[in-house]
Structures are given as structure tokens and as C-alpha cells.
Task: structure prediction
Amino acid sequence: MAYKKNKQDSPIISFIKFCIVTFTAVVLAFVIMLKIFLMTQPPIKNLENYKPNQVTKIYSADGELIKTFTAYKFEQVNIREVPKNLINALVATEDKNFFSHDGYDLFGIVRSTFVNLQARKTVQGASTITQQLSRILFLSNERSFNRKIKEIIIASRIEKSLTKNQILEMYLNNVYLGSGAYGAAGAAAIYFNKSLKNLTLAECALIAGLPQAPSVYSPYNSQKLALKRRSQVLDRMLKMRYITKDEYKAAINEPLHLNSSTNSGARTLNQAPYFIDYVLKELESLGFDEQDITQGGYKITTTLNYKAQKIAEDALTKNMASWGLNGDKNQAALFSFSPIDGKILIYIGGKNYTKSQYDRVTQAIRPPGSSFKPFVYATAVYKGWNPNDLIDDTPFSIGTWSPRNYGSKYRGKIPLYKALALSSNVAAVRLIDDTGIKPVIVMARELGITTPLANDSTISLGSNGVKLFDMVVAYGVFANGGFRVKPYSVSEVQTSRGKVVYSANKIHKTKVLHFETAGMVNAMLEQVISAGTGIAAKIGVAQAGKTGTTDDYKDAWFIGYTPNIVTGVWVGNDDNSKLPGMTGGTLPAIIWRDTMKVVTEPYKDAKFDYEPFELKTTQHIPQSEISEEVEDKENNQNTNNQAGQENTDNIAPQEQNNNAIKQNTYETITEPVRLTPAEPENSSFSENISMQNIEKKEVVNGRFY
Result:
């Protein structure tokens, strides 16, 4: 192809045009050569009898098989049994040129390559149904040019081996469609308790929309996303004239009638189901897509301590039942990880996964009550306070707001550590008044809190919603001497041939708090358990923690840790109704105790790596003074509702989750605010620590200095 220079072109423009023409010619030459090569490929013998390996196995760290991705529901069907609407929906959504191409679309691949290069990430694919089948039968979902070429070659050979109807039949029998369903017939049974021939147009559209992301669009995981995806499929069918406008309108408005009776049966192989959901999300963030995970034949090793998981599940179930909390709305969650290396050890997102897949570890946003107070105390210590300094535990007002202690008990001047151990409300408010609100918000952010926080003094009493996951991460900073450690769940991924394709070989740690500051907070939190509101959690080892209880006993928390493990427990009702008499120092502390006294047995002699901090006054705190930190709704909530909380009774968890963090009047702090340091300027408040630097530090008993 010759290029004739335009006399009006500048040298730069001429060069650019020459490059474009040359590149286009190279691409076209490559496409033509590949096309010729593919035409010479032989068919695959006996392909119609091929049985793919559909088993991916997930193991706990202690070797227990906790999940297998195999056909919970699988039925082989003939293409003649598949409704025309399902075939049309699948073709319209996944591969509109299916009946005319040779198994691949080279120009579509070139087009998507340009789009992906421009976006600098994978935003568009070009896999035909035949290419998807080649991946299901013979390949992994490794994101590489090499795999894509193999996929095209195999797709070409499949097209020479099978008819279009046979390809569709094999695809519809083997594709993973979420919730344990392999193949269209399995999906029809699991989701609708129907045979394929009885599916409605709307149900066919829902199933046809699942291959792209089965877990995301599974109606058992999110009905909202499932219906949105169904609408997209129906739109495509209408545009391609597979259905009429009247059929479209009827299908769009058809209610979703799910088969709840088979939902539990589809999930019986999940030994730690909430954890498995977290693992799948982490795998996807690492570049594995769901079809690859479920059908890749992988061996996935996780960080979960299965023995500890079962102990925690038994402790949660037994104690909830003993308190009479047997209803579906009565819920609890527990999350545990290592503040040393970030391994997630225990993960319980609710009482019963088969009845509710809503994950209360990472999705629920609930007010933490007084379990938020350590962040206020950490800020105060950072700015120069000492645990032995005296603070007034006497009535105090900020504007029109007059917080008060539980039972109106006031103790006069008391040491800071005693104020935290007894969870004095007025002391916490005095502290935030002294330190400033913004520094407390910065402290919470640096420690790991990700939800919006109001620029308001009431956050000192835990008025804003937080996640259990974030609270446990934040307390981990106190446990390990100032490092925020990122939790993770996947240790290693191996192919069916034993090749390691992923290994977690880096600890994500960030220095966010001075060692001395963390040590002082730790000393005060030890007092909470030894002589304060958390005494019910005592297990006879080095431990620290904090209780939390919110307005009208709607939320009860206990977050505690030993030198090796941080564990958080939340108890409450999904509809945000009251649990009279429930405080953080009761059921949550008991669940924590029953879990941790067994889980920490191998580390019972472990000690915190802080220099002993001498408390000036160590007299025993009378039991009569130990009162839970329940915030009186009428007196401890600003008359102007400064916390931004609303009445969320009888609201579903997902909706309640959004309402819990609404801030209609007060500023949400998103920009960093510099704290005035009480320690050297060169001690960065958010110093990044790499693994290389960590390894150079002295390590004693598995601890970093």
C-alpha cells in the first residue's frame, strides 16, 4: 500500500499518517494470516462426548475443604428442549453474530484491543459463544494475549467439529450460571423450580444475563442487579426484533418469583459461606473472573482457621439462643484477623446464610456507641495527654447539648484510664472538645474507618455508622504497635496441574500511629477488661478491648484483642429495633470470650510488646461503679439531632445501611487534617512501610519494631 505525500502536509503530520497507514497494514496482514492459519486447523475428534473438569476446590489454612464448585444442580438437555426465547436471549446478549461467524470475530478483537489500550485496562471483550465454550472446555481464564490466541484457535476447531446447534447445546449444558447451577436446566430448577420448557420470557432473559457475572447477577445475591440485567437482555432482544414491543413490556413488568426452597440446597457445600463470598470478591480483584474460578479446576488455599471458625459459629449460635434471640431479624456478626500479617481467621456475616446472604461484617453500617471512644482517647494521647492525667467526670455541655453518664453517675476528677475503663460519656465529650473534632476524624480515618463521619462532637459517643470490618482493622493498630494492616483471605491459587498462579507474599502495612501512643491506648484498653465494662470478656491472657452500646439498646459491640488476634462482635436486629438490656459488656463480650479462650490457646503466654506503662492509681474499681455506657436517647442526643441519625425501625438491612450514614446538615471530613504532634515532627503520622523495610527491622516473637 503506497502513501502519497500531500504537499500541504507538514513533516510531523506526514510522519503520523505514515505510521497510521503502516500500522493498519500490519494489523490487516496479521488478521489475514491468522484467518488463513485458522482455516487449516483440523476438527477436534469426539468433541461431542467431551466432559470438562468442573471442580474448583477452596481449602482453609488448616487443610479443611470448605467449598467445591461442582454441579450442585446439573441436567443434560437436548437443544430441542431449550426454549427459543432462551436461545434468542443468549445470542442477543452474548454473541449477536453467532449463526454467521466461524467461531471468532477478528475485527471485534481488534476493536476491543484498541478500546482496552485507550482505557489502559480491560473494559471490553470480544469472546463469542464458541470462544467461551473453548475456555470452559480446555482453557483457564488467564488474562493474556497467549490465551486469547489459543481460545481463537480452539474455537475455530470447535466450529469445524460441531454444528451451531451442537455448540449451543454444549454451551447451555456446561456454562456456570451462579448459585451452584451448571447449565440452563440447572439454573431453571434452582432459580424458578421449573423445567426449561416452562420458563417465561422474563425468566429466560434473567438466565441469559447470568454468564457475564453469575454471582453479581444471581437474584439470590441481589434482586436489584438481577432485574437490571434482565432489562438489558430484554432491550437487546427488542432491538434485534426477537420479541415484540408488547412482549417486551409484559416481560419488563413481570414480578420476580424465585424458588426459595432450593436456595439452601444449592449452598450446602459452603462450610463458611460469608467468608467464601469475601474470597470470591478478593479473587476477582486479583484478576480471576467468576467463570474461571468456578470452572478452572483450581486449588485455592485461604487464610481461614476452620477449627476457629467452627468454635466461633458454635459460640455465636449457642449464646444467641440462650438469650432467646432466635428470630430471623435477631442477628450477630463476628470478624477476626491477625494484626501481625493480615490473615483473616474467622468470618461470620450473620446467623444463617441460607436465610440471609446480607453480610454484616462488610455491608452493615451501624453506630458503634462507646467502642468508638478509643479513637478519641488515641487522639488525646497523641496530642499530649497521659493515661494518668486527671479529667473531670462531671456534668458538661456543648451548646445546647448536655451529654450525661449512664444512671447519672459522676465521679469527679478521675484518671484518663479510669474514665475509659468505666466508659464515661462526659469524659469522652470533654476530650473531643479539647482535641478538636477534625483531628479525631483524621485519627479514625488513619486507623481504618472508611464510612462518613459528621463534623460534630457526638461522634465521641459513637453516633455515626461504621462497619465491623473497619473497627477490627482499627483496633489492630493498637494491638501491633501502630501499624494498619490490610486483611486478606487468599493465600495461594494453584492450577489443576499444581502450577502456582498466585501467592500472597506481601504484607500490606502502613505506619499510622507512634509506638508510644499505641502503647498508652493499649494500657487503658487492658483496664477495660481487667476492671471495667469489658470484664465479662476476661480469658486470663494478655488482652484489651472496648464495649459499645447505642441508643435504646439497638446495637451492642465488643471489639477486643490479644497480641496475636483481633476479634470484633456485633449483635443487633436487622430492622434496627431494640434489644432491651443488651449491652456490649453482655452477650457480645460473652461470644467473644467463648471464641477467644479456645482460639488463643496456642498463644496463651504471648505478651504485648509494649514497655510496661505504670498507672499511678491501681486501686480496684468497685463492681458497683462498672456500668455499661448506654447513651440515653433523650439526654445524650443533641436536640438538633447533630449525629445525623434517623429512626430506621422496620427498614430492610440494605436500606437501613444507607440511612445510618446520612449527614444532612454537618460536614463530612474527606480532606486530611494535620494533627499538632506531641512527638517529633519526623515521625510521620501516615508513613508507608514496605515489606523490604519491615524485614530490616528487628523481629521479636513475630512482632515488628
Remarks:
- The CA atoms of residues 226 and 646 lie 30 Å apart.
